[in-house]
Amino acid sequence: MKVLVVGGGGREHALLWALRRDLPDARLLAAPGNPGTALLGENLPIAATASDDLVRAARERGVDAVIIGPEAPLAAGLADRLRAARIAAFGPSAEAARLEASKAFAKDVMAQARVPTAASRTVHDFPAAAHYIRSHAEPLVVKASGLAAGKGAVVCATRAEAEATARAFLNEGTLGDAGREIVIEEFLDGEELSVLALTDGERIAILPPAQDHKRLGEGDTGPNTGGMGAYCPVGLATPALLDRVRREVLEPTLAEVSRRGARYQGVLYAGLMIRPDGTPAVLEFNCRFGDPETQVLLPTLADPGVSQALIDIAQGSWHPTSDVLMPKGAAVTTVLAARGYPDAPEKGAAITIPDDLGPDVVVFHAGTARDEQGVLRVNGGRVLSVTALAPTVALAARASAAACERIGFAGKTFRHDIAWREIQRAGAA
User: What's the predicted TM-score (pTM) here?
Assistant: First the structure.
């Protein structure tokens, strides 16, 4: 078995790690990969968006399945290109990936499928945006419709702030083409939940729900980031809630996408707000595994069938044996970020990772690179994801934070309070 994972971040390292754990005899490749994936398989010097080169490499090396990690190659149609070349691919078509690549498209799909979500308006020019903003209550959320690397959603406390954000996106082009079309939403109160599901377009297997921490600072303060950590399981995600998410969100969304002629094969990520009355509403869809959710989910799924499911979905031979995959124990991942993240991360600092962090701690590489002398150095905003496994979330959080303290590089930034809501919830129970 030869499997190629496309991408070079923490998510892709976690995918290779799970494949190596579950399928020890498989030959694993990553493109472009990172220093962490290099310890598990072969890195190919091919960018994740170089579709022609990826198809050629998969064909020449006789790859049995390609698992596509990031959103950009999915939105650009890499899965379509691979399938056209008769190479099995895990990941939705470009048309289906519009659920993430175009928030306006996702809103239209949800409206047609009657999926619960925030009331919104899609606009293309600032006068229309300002008119809508001035007639709606504060706070508001302004989102770039296109892919914006996690920087396209801004919660605005006032209408003035919402207008300034809309102006920056539409008139000043601060997010380039991603912000040429924007979605203005009502603000939803509640608690966020990430629900990811494997699907072949018809059948669904829900992965253990997780909760991501988007804010840079302790207590969920500061600017939004791509994610500073995550944990699972989440006490909020009861069997009854997951059944409701399946019936009201996942199934109708996939059915509507299929009705439009785009079969969805891969993982569908529903970013939800669970409102105070317990009802779910969709904040966003992603068409791929989350980051850092993948780094916390896959280590809790010790069943080898999980990795095999990815390959079976790619090859069109999936027969799920469970509707919901349950985690074994708990996991917390804490992101170590570079100084200056998210706006201007500083690169180049040397990284030291002790060898004795323990058997229940896994370090996933994201923004790392080795220099000509082989020294591991910071090469991105989110540098490492440090995942700890334990019987409870509280113990996993403590172990993850302790491991983070021992890893060294100049300017190291991380949160010490990942999973604080769950720890409070468990303490109050």
Answer: 0.95
